[in-house]
Input
Amino acid sequence: MGRYVIRRLLQMIPVFFGATLLIFLMVNVMGDPIAGLCGDRKCDPATATQLKKEFGLDKPVWQQYATYMGNVFTGDFGTAFNGQKVTELMSTAFPLTIRLTLVAIVFEIVIGISLGVVTGLRRGRPVDTVVLLLTLVVIAIPTFVTGLLLQLLLGVEWGVIKPSVSSEAPVNELLIPGLVLASVSLAYVTRLTRTSIAENRRADYVRTAIAKGLPRRRVITRHLLRNSLIPVVTFIGTDIGALMGGAIVTERIFNIHGVGFQLYQGILRQSTQTVVGFVTVLVLVFLVANLIVDLLYAVLDPRIRYA
Amino acid sequence: MPDPREPDGTAGAIAPTGAGGAMDLAATEGSTLDKAPGGPEGSGPSTPARSLWSDAWRELRRNPVFVISGLIILFLVFISLWPSAIASGNPLSCDLANAQKSSAPGHPFGFDGQGCDVYTRTVYGARASVTVGVCATLGVAILGSVLGGLAGFFGGFWDAILSRITDVFFAIPVVLGGLVLLSVVTSNTVWPVIGFMVLLGWPQLSRIARGSVITAKQNDYVQAARALGASNSRMLLRHIAPNAVAPVIVVATIALGTYIALEATLSYLGVGLKPPTVSWGIDISAASQYIRNAPHMLLWPAGALAITVLAFIMLGDAVRDALDPKLR
Output
């Protein structure tokens, strides 16, 4: 187990540096990192040279990347375009987005897995067809359309929720944004669980459990579901990173000042340090979530052992 | 020390990885396709042996889901080639006096915020979406299957490098990559958007192609060809490619729908297509400002978008079911 974790941690290193380097190059080479620093006008050449020198932008790109990463490892993520520390932005943005993501994941687990179990056990029946069709419709409508429509109906027309989330963003205001964020993944979780349950339903161990005389509920939860969850857990694990990065759209619709909002601002202002800093943390979250998922396999399926 | 990502008998279930859920779903269900060897003496003497493809085609023609989604897609292709056939107006001729008005005679869908006819714009918007979807999918499929196929066939060092590169791309959220890359683009053609999708999309298909080539490589007929002294290129093109291409086609069809949705999302965020290009994403984005007063502006292009994406996803689903003999 310990050796496996260490091996996986070592494997993460190239991926981590590759992903951060890629995003660093994208921001730095494609854009003009000092464009946002002179307001809406273009910087005059003398100021531009001065600024470039100040930020070390006159050096070659690989050297800039090395310096930046060196700073990151000492906890210095640099400053945003408005002079605020990027770490300061992170400390306000990440709690909001983490809360939103948690709400979304709870929806995925509770609604997605229950629907998947119900349809997987009744494959081919009307309830299965209806739910499958619904998941297709949810997948086909882009998140921003779902979000705008729910905001219009629930927030403006019926007044059930507030159309935009307040700055503290308590969990009850995040319910609908969380549902919107989760919607597409929720449909995938339902379909994955359904396929997996339907496949394992005829497995020998399920027949044995029924033959032993176990109650139906116990057969389903302890035997069938547990063995069917591995692909679902994998999906949810990889989805955590995608949800936090994909929250850009949801946060924009519901006016939540989380990671997506800060990234959007950073990209508009071409603030390299904000964008690369936030992406670095997101990549770390993605990698750690994947590792945890792999370790969870052994919990779900005792046949999997890590030497 | 088993890596649970590689199915090794003990792990049992094949676990999908990666961010693009649609593609993974198809991958898990599609990569286990068994190929009909289709030898001349395979079935009885009276019925000639049918290949996997003709079998699948017979199956598909009888599947109403396939027929309906196929007709929708044919219609979309038709109106993106000749939009003027069903919409006589000009999508760019607008009269501010009509701004936000709802439907009127000759203008069944009403007018948008600039006073343009929503029906005409919705019809003309199909072209941008279909172009982006088709070109991005072609690019991703070609690049992904060539790189993934070669890596799967030869294995070793380059395979390991490719797998790590794939991991790197999976770690970057797609919408985020799009914002960063496309925010500096000023061109208002569809090509930057397509280029971005190919750049960030190929690793997903290369993973599928790699897995599928590795499975096909182990078949006896490939070993037989090798024993008979066939060259690498002959084995790849004659024996492996025809038997490994099915999962790639399935995933690519479903991906086409998701690329169309992604284009709309990027346009909504202001980095996708740009006016005067007529696109559903641009129109939905513009309509979102007036959603309280004139929801019809949002509903028509959004509806067209949803039906298009749905059609491609259902087509991919139907093709996958037809190509998977285990389900019959």
